[in-house]
Write a structure and sequence with these properties.
Largest sheet: none
Helix content: over 70%
Structural class: mainly alpha
Order of helices and strands: HHHHHHHH
Number of helices: 8
Number of strands: 0
Shape: rod-shaped
Distance between the termini: 99 Å
Number of domains: 2
Amino acid sequence: MARWEPVLDEVMRQRTPRLLAYARLLTRDDAEAEDVLQDALVRSFSKGRAFQDADRAEAYVRQAIPHVFVDRYRSRRSREAAHERQARAAGGHAELGDRAAVLDVRAALAELPPRQRACMVLRFYDDLTVPRIAAELRLAEGTVKRYLADASARLAEMLDAEADWETEREHAPVQDDAKGGR
């Protein structure tokens, strides 16, 4: 048995309620407090530190708890920020209601033939021009334009939406010949 095991056992049996209450002050959540305490215990005892008694071990764990709490908070914030960046990259500023639409677009893209899908992704996600897409995929510019047009029409059909240019043309003001138009 390692020298630190009896000390850990005593801390776990006798000091856990106090340490858990301390962790709860930071987390305001019982489950999170238990996780923070567990991580602090692992940090404190994982390197085989030889605490002379349970009082010193408790003090060390108590000192580790705020550090663990801050590290977990930073890690969570970092993950949330990464998810937000990924959602923005995948579908603009995807709000909760827009996530279903993003998934629909992804599913619709997956239905396109590979070259059409590549052209659409390069054009609308990577924001490349037609000449750049042509160079990237080693295709003629006219071929890229055709793939983009076909893919747009197919996506509009699959997503049950009209293409933007059709909508704009339908809502464009029409000049009346009787009012001095042509």
